[in-house]
Structure formats: C-alpha cells, structure tokens
C-alpha cells in the first residue's frame, strides 16, 4: 500500500506555493486571527486546533493541527520561505520532490534540516544572546519536573554548537505523534508559567514557544536514539548576510537583542 504523505507548507500570507499538490499542502497559520482566509489553503482553525495561539507559537499551530486532524502516514512541516531541497537551487521548482522523498523514506523515518552551526557559541548562549533568557530557565524547570528522564539530553544539547533549526521536519506517523505529544506537553506547561511576562514582550519575542521548540527537537531525537537523515534547506527570499552578521556581533559583545 502506498503511504499517504502530507507536507504542510505554513504561511501567514497568500504566496506562491509548490505546484505538486500531491504531497505539498498549503496551510494558513493563525487563521483564527486573520481577516480573511486564503483560497486553496487548509485553515489551522479547523478541527482540534490552537490557531488563536499563533502569535506565540508561530508555525507550531500547523504542527498541532496536523497531529490532531491529519490522517497521513507521513507528515512534514516546511515554510513558504524555507523548503527541503537536494539541489540547493533557490526555486520553487527545485524543492524536494515526491519521488526523492519516498526514496529517502526507505532508509529513515525522520528527516530534518542540515545542522545550523554556531561555531563560537553554544545553542544555549546563542538563545540567551538573541532572546529572553528566562524562557530557557522556565523550559529547563518544566523538563526537570515533567520529563526528568530528558534532562541530561537537554543539558547536553544546549552545550552543543549546532542544532536542527526552523521547526522543519518530516516524520512517519509513529514518530510524529510521539514527538508532538511530548513537545506540546512541555510548551503548554511553559506557557502557563511564562505567559504574564510574554504579554509584555515585543511582537518578535512573543514568538517564544516557536523559538524554544527549535531547541527541543534534538533533545527528543537524542533521548530516543532516533536515526534521522539531514536534507539541505533553501531560503526562498534574499538574505542580508552583512546585517545578520552585524546583529550577531552586537549580541555577542553585549549590546543585547537587536
């Protein structure tokens, strides 16, 4: 039997989507907060959902929707600006095709982006330089109390100088369900403790649970000894590397979040 694959393409605006509708499915995130719904998109406010939390959870509202509403055997999440691609060519026509994905799935149950390397700082120090560090303190406390068997894996991963970022993944159903159940159990518990502070943060920092989840994927993979395959990611828009580098150095030498 051919497995059903559903790769959700998260977007908060109406943009060009992959032509291959067989596996790539656009999903409008934060639909419950939007003034209009996009034609041809799944709305993340249908079924069992957390669409209203999108300002804090970002693309994770699509991940939650998939966990509770998708019937696919293989589920993935990408972004309208970021896609998996074996060719690395910045083109909507060059994203990972179904044929290559099915070939990869013969050998692995989990696909993640290539590692993002920080080189001169750890995953933890990078987060603390870029975001509100108290969120990490609450996160670690929640893991210690609710999932203490993951604490060693968490501490070890936060010391690493790389991480699988962007909340992008493709997983078979069993791994997807196990990961997302664990992830949201932690994030909802963090939300209870942190939300009063988050309400006073700027729009960017309000996306805290999306930022935290980027640090949690490797914790789950490590603790559960999950074999995974890395695939490169292409960023569809132009990036100002000079600006990004300047912001990184400013954070590193102590000017705080910029």
UniProtKB/TrEMBL annotation:
<protein>
    <submittedName>
        <fullName>Glycosyltransferase</fullName>
    </submittedName>
</protein>
<keyword id="KW-0808">Transferase</keyword>
<dbReference type="Pfam" id="PF14393">
    <property type="entry name" value="DUF4422"/>
</dbReference>
<dbReference type="GO" id="GO:0016740">
    <property type="term" value="F:transferase activity"/>
</dbReference>
<feature type="domain" description="DUF4422">
    <location>
        <begin position="6"/>
        <end position="224"/>
    </location>
</feature>
<dbReference type="InterPro" id="IPR025536">
    <property type="entry name" value="DUF4422"/>
</dbReference>
């Amino acid at each position: 039997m051919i497995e059903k694959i559903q790769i959700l393409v998260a977007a908060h605006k109406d943009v060009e989507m992959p032509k291959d509708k067989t596996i790539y499915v656009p999903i409008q995130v934060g639909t419950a907060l939007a003034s209009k719904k996009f034609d041809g998109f799944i709305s993340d406010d249908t079924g069992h959902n957390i669409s209203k939390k999108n300002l804090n959870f970002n693309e994770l509202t699509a991940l939650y929707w998939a966990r509770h509403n998708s019937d696919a055997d293989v589920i993935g999440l990408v972004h309208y600006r970021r896609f998996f691609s074996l060719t690395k060519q910045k083109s909507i026509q060059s994203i990972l095709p179904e044929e290559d994905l099915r070939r990869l799935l013969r050998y692995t149950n989990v696909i993640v982006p290539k590692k993002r390397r920080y080189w001169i700082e750890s995953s933890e120090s990078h987060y603390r330089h870029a975001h509100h560090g108290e969120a990490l303190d609450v996160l670690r406390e929640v893991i210690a109390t609710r999932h203490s068997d993951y604490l060693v894996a968490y501490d070890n991963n936060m010391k690493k100088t790389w991480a699988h970022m962007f909340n992008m993944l493709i997983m078979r159903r069993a791994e997807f369900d196990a990961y997302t159940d664990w992830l949201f159990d932690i994030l909802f518990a963090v939300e209870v403790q942190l939300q009063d502070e988050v309400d006073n943060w700027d729009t960017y920092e309000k996306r805290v649970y999306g930022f935290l989840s980027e640090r949690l994927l490797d914790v789950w993979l490590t603790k559960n000894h999950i074999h995974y395959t890395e695939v490169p990611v292409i960023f569809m828009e132009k990036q100002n590397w000079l600006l990004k580098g300047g912001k990184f150095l400013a954070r590193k030498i102590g000017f705080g979040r910029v």
